[in-house]
Amino acid sequence: xxxxxxxxxxxxHQDRLADLDHPEAHDVCRAIGRRVAAEVAEVVAILExxxxxxTVDGDPSAPVQRHSGTLHLTAADKAFAAVRAxxxxxxxxxxxxxxxxxxxxxxxxxxxxxxxxxxVTITLELCWPPSTLGGRLPAILxxxxxxxxxxxxxxxxxxxxxxxxPLRLLAERLGLRPxxxxxxxxxxxTPTDLIKPLLDLADVGADDTLVDLGCGDAxxxxxxxxxRGCRGVGIEADPFLVGEARRLVAxxxxxxxxxxxxxxxxxxxxxxxxxxxxxxFLFVPAYAVPPVAGRVLAQARPGSRLIVHEQHPLxxxxxxxxxxSVPLLSGQGVTVxxxxxxxxxxxRPVTDEGDQGP
Length: 358
Fold this sequence. Notes:
Radius of gyration: 21 Å
Oligomer: single chain
CATH architecture of the largest domain: 3-Layer(aba) Sandwich
Shape: globular
Number of domains: 2
Strand content: 15-25%
Helix content: 25-40%
CATH superfamily of the largest domain: Vaccinia Virus protein VP39
Structural class: alpha/beta
Number of strands: 12
Strand order of the largest sheet: 8-7-6-9-10-12-11
CATH topology of the largest domain: Rossmann fold
């Protein structure tokens, strides 16, 4: 890695790319800033049309490396109304907000994240003043999706989740029930501008089978198959995204070369459809990379390549695979990409489980 690449990677990891003295970095961050500003202005107009007032901190068009913005609303009621209004424009919340989840959020939280995806994923954090209970309960005791899945209670009994959660955590610690799944996080798309350089880094060719773990709308697979002539396998846990991926694959006439499977990339074994994979693609939160990548490296055929990309630093793992890391800046996209090659005999399994709250 040369010194320029090292500086870029360090700046990306510290979320300071916009401050770096580097012309290409400035251009990309300015482009992202303008894109975010336009999106925020459109969202504010949508909300105002619905009688919902929203304010924005600072200059939303300032150069940034992430496609994200923050909107401040006057109350929790306005935030939930904003989620409903933005849902008609393609924005989806990143967590359950209906049933018992809504009063939990109203009483113990003061933010919600919604996101919309086209060539990039735009995320918006909706903030409101905390309730009188806000901040009084430690974060680890605030109920979440795992608790709603563990015990299905009607909305009217939502306070009981304040008991369900510690009991569930205790039962899992004592081995009395299986631990809740380690979610790979909500869907963030790989910016379209980054797909070609990522495929180049992986040396994807016509003889390859590309497996995308957490494929979302299958954009990586669709680009790779259409432009490189390879085959593609997508693994996706979200039924909504599975449907979207299959629809887009069919619309582009690629369903004879791409299969999208509803499944969990966190599973201990790769799906049978992935057994012929020669290139594996992984874009998940940094904490989830070691266990998932470790299973891929342990099960993939010798000579296979694994591409991981993230703006956050990755936990240390798989150093015996000769990982190559490069910064990628292109148009509307910024990331650090990592290539790991499976040596003859396979790679050492990775055991670092990362760090994520239950």
